[in-house]
Amino acid sequence: MIMRIPFGYERMFEIIKGLQSESNIVDILEHGCLAGHFTRFLRDNGFNAVGIDIDEKSFLEDYVQKGYLINLASGAIGKYFGDKQFDLILANRLFSLESTRVLVAERYARGNLTIFPETDVLDVAMHNTETILEASLKQLKPGKFFVSTIDGDERPTATREMVERIGYKIIQFEPYEIVLKT
């Protein structure tokens, strides 16, 4: 059992608790869960949380065996979960130019990615952000939430225009903290 909020997730948990006070939140999907510590923390605190990440090497094995960490690209959640819908979907430190640079560099180093000279990392980051937001909207229950936070020194990749075009209602939109509703 994880008793303390994992480092870097303190604000995310405050937002979740605030949303919990206005709407019953049980089922949570975490994009980019890394080792799964926050997913486990949420489960230990009464939520039915599932974490997904494209890099299963960071997963803690016992979390995988318990079935709440899944190796999956964020854009593929519809194929994996089908009609299952969530009360809240979160992306902590995922919608930033810096996180995309790290992902691109890691995948390139492993030979899993070809980079063309004209590749613009910002374009890749914006496309990934939009893909995650679109896929998430389809997996959220009506009137439920998508939450994203990033560190203050990172460049955000989600824009107001993007989230409104996709179909979200904006509850809060600050450069480093986004709360959206279906």
Explain what you see:
The structure is a single chain. With 182 residues, this protein is α/β, with parallel strands linked by helices. The chain has helices at residues 10-22, 37-44, 61-65, 77-81, 97-109, 121-139, 160-166; strands at 27-31, 48-53, 69-71, 86-92, 140-149, 169-174, 177-181. Strands 3-2-1-4-5-7-6 form a seven-stranded mixed beta sheet, sandwiched between helices. Helix 5 (97-109) crosses helix 6 (121-139). The longest helix is centred in the last third of the chain and has 19 residues, at 121-139. The chain is globular and about 45 Å long. The chain starts with 9 loop residues before the first helix and ends with a strand.
Number of helices: 7
The largest sheet, given as strand count, sense and whether it forms a barrel, is:
7 strands, mixed
Strand order of the largest sheet: 3-2-1-4-5-7-6
Helix content: 25-40%
Tell me the series of helices and strands, N- to C-terminal. Answer: HEHEHEHEHHEHEE
Distance between the termini: 32 Å
Number of strands: 7
What is the molecular shape? globular
- What's the Cα radius of gyration? 16 Å
Q: Structural class, from helix and strand content? A: alpha/beta
Q: How much strand?
A: 15-25%
Q: Oligomeric form of this entry?
A: single chain
What do the pLDDT scores average to? Answer: 86
Low-confidence stretches: none
Descriptive tags:
182 residues; alpha/beta
Secondary structure blueprint with pairings:
Blueprint: H1 10-22, E1 27-31, H2 37-44, E2 48-53, H3 61-65, E3 69-71, H4 77-81, E4 86-92, H5 97-109, H6 121-139, E5 140-149, H7 160-166, E6 169-174, E7 177-181
Parallel strand pairs: 1-2, 1-4, 2-3, 4-5
Antiparallel strand pairs: 5-7, 6-7
Helix pairs in contact: 5-6
